[in-house]
Structures are given as structure tokens and as C-alpha cells.
Amino acid sequence: MAKKTGVSIRQSVYKTFRGADFSTDPSLVDYSRSPLCTNIVADGGGMPQKRLGWRKLWQKDKPVYGLFAGRFDGAEKKLAHIGTALYAWDDETAPTEILTGLPERRSRAAYLAGKLWIVTGAGFYVYDGTAAHRASQNAYIPTTVITRSPTGGGQSYENVNMLTPYRKNAFQTDGTATDFQLDGDIDATGTVRAWVFGEETTAFTLDREKGIIKMTTAPAKPTAGSEDGLVVEFPHTVAGYTDRIDKCTIITTYGIGTNDRAVLSGNEDLPNVDWTSGMNDPTYFPDLLYNEVGSEATAILGYCRLGRSLGIVKEDNGQDSTIYLRTAELQDSEIAQPQQQAVAGVGSIAPGSFASLLDDPLFLSRNGAMAVATNSYTSEKITQGRSFYVNNRLNDEPEREKAEAVIWNGMYMLALPNGHVYALDGRQNKTYRSAALGDYVYEGYYFENIPASCWLNRRAGAEESLYFGTADGRICKLNTDIEDMSRYSDDGAAISAVWATKYDDDGTPAVLKTLLKRGCCVTIKPYARSSAEVYIRADRTGGHEKKVAGKPMDILDFSDIDFERITFNTDESPQEIFLNRKVKNYKRLQIIVRNQEPNEGFGIFQITPELYMDHLLHPHYFQMLRYFEFLYLYS
Question: Among 239, 235, 242, 237, which residue's Cα sits nearest to residue 162?
Fold first, then answer.
């Protein structure tokens, strides 16, 4: 086209894409990001494409409160907490009930010592690959005292187990004493057992109230050394002990240089306390192996690993420390867990939001997703925001305290009860706000219609299978294992995907522009079945969207033919949709590309508007200039 006086032709190219940006006005975002981005995620090269869909595997009539899995004797087993029952299930086998009596509330689990340990807030359960039951059913019975004389004393040995009323006392025998004073009274009900030099005997009577076992025959004196000749196992209930563990709702693993102990917290009656199990044995929770973390006015909400330390994150009340660091070490053959305050002022709001993206421990705060990081100058722990670009929308979401996070395919995905999911992408280059301090943010994305109330990610080699449960009883799976184009639908329904450019003034809002009829196009990623609709929004259209182009963009694929839209195009290279629409005299313009069809892929490689710009500022510029000149001369 010939150039006109005072006019220049310009071509803009949007091709270096990143993520969504809801942080500011659509006219102020970077050229690489989109202020209107729904159900879009980056492909392996960072280009925007439609997210994968999901499908329902199974349906029950109660909410799904938890999905769990582990390997038992080399075989993968999956569990689901649905309503008041625990079910075994897999992709091909419908859920089979294996346990009832669970509370109807969110549950969580950890895998340790070849078993799955489940906290529910009203019971602590274990699954061994075959059956599930309360952990207290086969709880470890500690020997609380050894070398005890018949009248008392002795040496303290193991702490009381809060999961069971039972304990053992080991006595020195002298061949004459028949009455042995236990270290507590004996419950009115419950079995008492006794062993004399390892042989069990029933030749005794009990004084339960006084805690005395009366042997019919005096146990003999050891023939050599100081062996304890009598061991007595008896029930002595300490009020409230079992509830301390059963009411826990949070579980993690930790230990000395490894994860060999379970750590439980989330008891509403003791919100700032956690309990640590015996080594490789969560059926043993010693009554003295607990920690009070900060003020009792703020609850522990979750844990994260920070090198050799365990980070403990509490809720934020605006006053107290919110993050503590704990280390584990041996002292006199016993585990010690010193802890220190690390951060004040930024706490969590959602127990389900804790997950580590690569080596970055994340959780949800009132101000978005935060990470616990190390200050490169002082080596002190600090918190840094990681979700800057999506915070404006994320922080307005209802019921954020119910958010549930999962790490999948290099992304931190945070699900809300309304079906919205916010994803932080650890695969793309980070944006550094202060490179010297290591302060960076992730590219973010926003999804709709993923009604996840809990997640389960299962890894097998390089493959990851993502499942989620819903509030209406569905167990669903992301379509990672589907090869045809049905992978791009949500249980058969269309995924509405959209990507838009910024509301662009092309560097100057004062100069009028005209979008040319020819030379403007959107380059679409090739799929066997795809389509796109292109809209423009400009100040000339009153800020409303106006459709300017749209068509199918299929490639012939004999394995997936739709005879209603058959094509003979075999070119698998990118294809263009030309706008062929002129838009005159606008200051700002936005190009919006949508796909709202089921079973269609959709992605964008490039958006190329061509326009010419008037060198004059505005049609009324000279009138305004003469007006102000008049005021100056005659004032």
C-alpha cells in the first residue's frame, strides 16, 4: 500500500508469550502476557494452548474427602475417603468399601514404613495394602519402667503411648515377694497379662484400684545377673490422650536426616501443638514427644521441608511469629527437636495449600501464594510472593481457606471450591523482581470447570497421572492417557479457552490508528481437529467485543475423522486465520482468540496485526491549540 502524507504503516507481532497478567489494567500489561486468559496453559515451548480436559471415572452419592495411594508389595493401591467410608479403587475397578465409620470431613495421609497413615479429625487410621483399621487397634505397647522393685521405683524406660491405655512394667524378683506395685492403677476393664522369665502365666489376682498384681507363687530370683523376672502388661487410661491424636487433621513425615517419623497436628483443642511418632512406627506416639509452637492463639496450618529443617507454618494474626524452623538430632540416645522463630507477619490461610514446586516450598496466604526462602545476604528465612500476576483475581476468590494444592507436570495447581484453579508454572523462566535477593515470581494461569475438592498425583517413571475428587462424589482423571482429540473436553463438555493481547495503544494513545483489512492474522497451532474465533475490542467499538474472523483448522487424520467437517488438508504446519476486517480511527485495540468447541485442540503461535498510524495527534488537536492560544492572549 502506498504511504499517505502524515501516515506510516506498522506491523506489530505478538509471538513471545508467557502467562496471564491480572495485576493491572489490560492496557498496561506486557506484550508477552494476557489480561484475558482462561483455560490456557503453556506448551513445552511456552506457547499458549488449551489445557487438557478430564473425565469421570466413578460416581458415589457422597462427597470425596480424600484420595490416597501407595505401593504395597510392589503393587499400586488407591484409596478414596467418600462420605463415611474408605474405598479401594483403581481406573478399571469401581470403588469397593473396606472400612466404615469415618467422619464426613477432609482427610489427609502420609506413606511411611510400608503403610498409609490417614488423619481425619475424628480418628487416626492405617492401611497396610489389604485392610484398614484404627491405628490404635495394634498400637505399640511401651515398657514404661524397668528394674522396678516389688514396692515401686525403678528406671523410666519408654514414654506412655497416647494411642493405647496399655503399658508394661518390668520388675526385679527375689523369690519371696508376691505383691508388685505397678506405676499406675489398673482400669476397671481391660486384660492384664504377666510373664515370668518370658513364660506367660495367669496365676495372679489383681487389686485394680491400688494398682497391685498379686502372684500366686513368688517369682524366682534370677540365676545370674539382674534380669527382670516379671513383666506385667496392664491398661491405665490417661484422660484425653487418645483424643490428642485422633483429632489431628494434618500429617507429615520428618526425622533425623530422613523422613522416618510421622508428625501430626491440627487438633482444634490444641492448635499450636504437634506430636512426633516413634521411629518408623506411627502406632507409637510418646506422650512427652510433643512441641508447642508459638502462641496458642494461632494454629499450625502446615509443614514444608527446608533443607535439613522442618518449616512449621501457622495462621497469621498480625502479631505473632508465623513460621518456625525445627531440627532433629540425637541427645543421650533420644530424639531432640529444637526449634526457633524464623518469620513473623506472613502466615497461611489454607491447610491444603502446602506443596513444594521443585525446591520451592509454597503455601497460600492472604496475599497469594508465598514461598519460604533464604535471604542471600543474611541467610535468614524470609517469605516471598510467587503469584503476583494472578493475585488480583486469586485474592478475591471465596472460601480460599478450602484451597487444595497439588504439584503436577512442573506446576503448582491450587483448586478452589467453585471449580477455579490457579496454576504457577515452574517450567518457564522466572521473572525476577530482585535478582540479588532471589525474589522472583512464576508465570501464572487460570482454569475454570475443574471441581477438585482433593487431588492425587501418581508418578510412574516420567509419567504423571492426576486424579481429583469432587464435592458431589465423583472420582475424575485428567486426560493425560488419551491420545485422540477427546482429551480436550471436560467429561464430554467443551472447554472454553481464550487468549487475548493487551489493550494495545502501540506506544502512544494520542495517535489514531487504522487496522488494515489485509495483512492481519492469527497463527494457530496445528491439531487434527481445531478451530478458532477472533474478536477485536477497541475504543471505537465502545469497548465491546466484535467478531471479525473464525473457521475450522483441521488436519486430515484417518484415525479421527468427522464426516460433517471432513478436510483433505494434510499440512501439519501452523495455519493462519486472516482477519480481513478494517477498523478505523481507534486509539487502543485488543485481539481476542477463542475456542469453545468440544474435542478440539487449540493453541496460538503468533498474532500479527498490521496498521497505519496518523502522525497527527488527534482530529481536534489544532482546535484545542487555538483555544488555549486565545485564552493566553486575551487573559
Answer: 242
